[in-house]
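Why do we care about 3D structure at all? Because function follows from shape, and shape follows, mostly, from sequence. That is the central idea of this module. The next example makes it concrete: a single protein chain, its amino acid sequence, and then its structure expressed as tokens.
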Amino acid sequence: MFLVEPVEATWSEWCSLYRAFLKHITLSEIDGEEQSVCYACASEPIVGFENPNIDFEPLNFQVQYYFQSRKAEVKMPSGNVDKPVIEDNRDGTVCIKYDPREEGLHELSVKYNGEHVQGSPFKFHVDSISSGYVTAYGPGLTHGVSGEPGNFTISTKGAGSGGLSMAVEGPSKAEISCHDNKDGTVSVSYLPTAPGEYKIAVKFGEKHIKGSPYVAKVTGEGRKRNQISVGSCSEVSLPGKVTESDIRALNASIQAPSGLEEPCFLKRLPIGNLGISFTPREVGEHTVSVKKMGKHITNSPFKIKVGDKEVGDAKKVKVTGSALTEGKTHVDNTFTVDTKNAGYGGLSLSIEGPSKAEIQCKDNEDGTLNISYKPTEPGYYIVNLKFADHHVEGSPFTVKVTGEGSNRQREKIQRQREAVPITEVGSECKLTFKMPGITSFDLAATVTSPGGVTEDAEINEVEDGLYAVHFVPKELGVHTVSVKYKDIHIPGSPFQFTVGPLRDGGAHRVHAGGPGLERGTQGEPCEFNVWTREAGAGSLAISVEGPSKAEIGFKDRKDGSCYVSYTVTEPGEYRVGIKFNDQHIPDSPYKLFISPAQGDAHKLEVAQFPTTGVQADKPAQFLVRKNGAKGQLDAKIVSPSGAEDDCFIQSIDPDTYSIRFMPRENGIHNIHVKFNSVHIPGSPFRIKVGKEDADPAAVHASGPGLGDIKTGVKTDFIVDTCSAGAGTLAVTIDGPSKVAMDCTEVEEGYKVRYTPLVPGDYYISLKYNSYHIVGSPFKVTCTGEDLHLAEKGAQETSSVVVETVQKVSKNKSQGIVLPLFKSDASKVTSKGMGLKKAYLQKQNMFTVAATDAGNNILYVGIYGPKGPCDEVYVKHMGRNNFTVNYVVRERGEYIVIVRWGDEHIPGSPFKVDV
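And the structure:
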């Protein structure tokens, strides 16, 4: 290394002085120093120095920022310029600290690579602590992000008595909330819903306090994030042959030398042996326990030694490609990751920036992967690349993306939602939704109580297109309301409906559904429902982002549900974001395509569409009539797993086409039929494939893993799929770290086991055939120490998908529980000739009146000389009044038994002569 004599000069002069002969210069940024010592290195002898034969190797510093890429300065009220301290947080963010030396208005400029960052320069007012005046401080007085609360504090200590008032003026109405901290300070929060400059006036005794009105710069919505994970596990063979059916009944866990126990995957190796798959985290002897129905199998527990080379080491991962320093919009920016010598570990990539960049990953199956990302907006992006839960060398990377933006327009509305009054047992409950263009004949609703009793619910049309489900609950707790249209759950169903006090609220309890979250047409209203009843009170924000600005309409139905419609003027890809208390609800943001204006597409009609009997791997077809429309027809089928396949289109005559399709899996498929790139009326058509009707409303989850959990402790929960049919169970756990997770088959369904490593809130999402089950996503709080086995980062996702089999509960106590009836059989009356005398081959009749006898079930049985009679027909006439008809074919004495629940009614059993 050659040390150049320090000279009084700036960095730019050093550059011009030595640039001519230096091949490589790498600098480590030193914050806060005006003059840096410049260490230069050359790969060739330097002419003109005393020893021209010394050969210097280039230094290989890996730095995240170029020299003086970040710069901050504060302009003081006196006009002097001061320098704050910049600290690198090593996660793609920096912290700026400043100790003010003067009172008055200051201006903070923050620059990145010579350009002001968004919102810079920021203005703030400094007051002395001993001034005795009312003062205000906090980030909300200088800057903020649209759609996120701006917070600041007002101190009135030692200011005497007087009235305090606040006002916020700006591009949007900002709701203000205050909280008196009872210590002479007041916490204030306001919510700006549009970017721009906001004036914040704070008055005490009807006079502006020092620095008021403050000017806060509010920028557009926060950064958007996308993430992808690629698994990589070590496989170990265990002694003993095993079959596929055996593996289903087994589950395994591995305990590391430190005592940490995690679930691991079992698999049958090609040689027939039992194998386990796990991610090694520590060196040393590990213990593998393999159990069947809770008992160790032969030779279990097994011992496994893990060496240095097997433990995933992020430092040994090699990353190559310019896409980690610069990129372009609307193209795939590709880089290569080499994990050949890095042991075993999962690779996790997240990218955060002005747009949600689409990520793709190609495994070359030689230990290397090609990863690409496609951003749609220019700007700076932060790329986090982790291997075995640790950042690889150089991560997080800062990438400068250039190119054309997508000119996306954004519109947003914000509404306050009030908590709905608590529902009591015995009161009428109502759940409303809007579905225009359908008939109520095709709608059906059921309600399942916490005890497992399922009953039909009344459903009626309140006004054009608006439907309400009515039911009267008999017990407290979480009820499941299923609403089906043509035997398929409507978007949002099955619904959770709590009778009594709500158990937990928040964004994860908000449901949304409707055609406006799946598709739309330019210039026409796109509509959907939002149900916030289960989430409690809070702020609901709806945004639409795409090629044109949206006009958003909002209708509050005052029952915990609301209706949203939006109209856009341009076709293309749009995103609809739904946030509750500034958090995205499950599945938000929704990505959809708005078709061009209909043109002739509305003329087309479908005929002979198969509604039943469609089987997987068997072709089916329907007809499309053009009715004189001129243009191109195309069709595709989308399976429940998201796989797309083309349909075969054949012309029968100039106006009629046959569309043939072949579904490859069971479940609800969507068939998209477009004419000149526009959906025809009714498209996409939903079709049920296969006989098995997997019903997400019948799936329930319970167990310690859905309650409070601890770090490093293996926990589990059961997903009960009895009576739900075969389907696809998808389990996703979002939290502050990845979790080791597996899913095994048990008698009543499937057991999911996982081990959290970092404390915080985890959200467990359970979907059955792509529908959330009731209660999903579950919010689980994890306490305990951070185990330092994983670096804490942003939200991490772990998921597992299982194709389930038909389950029937063998434990009768888990079957249907009868309601607790309150009735009195002695108050039931009966009359009619059929209780005394009966005639052969004729309808004999009597009536039973139980109006005053409470609620129960009527049982009627008739027994004759040769066993039961041929026909008994009971009809409910309303208000617990019944008519009973029966037919007998033999002469003799008959016994008529009539019971109200378990008790005989007065006179029963009756003796009847035929």
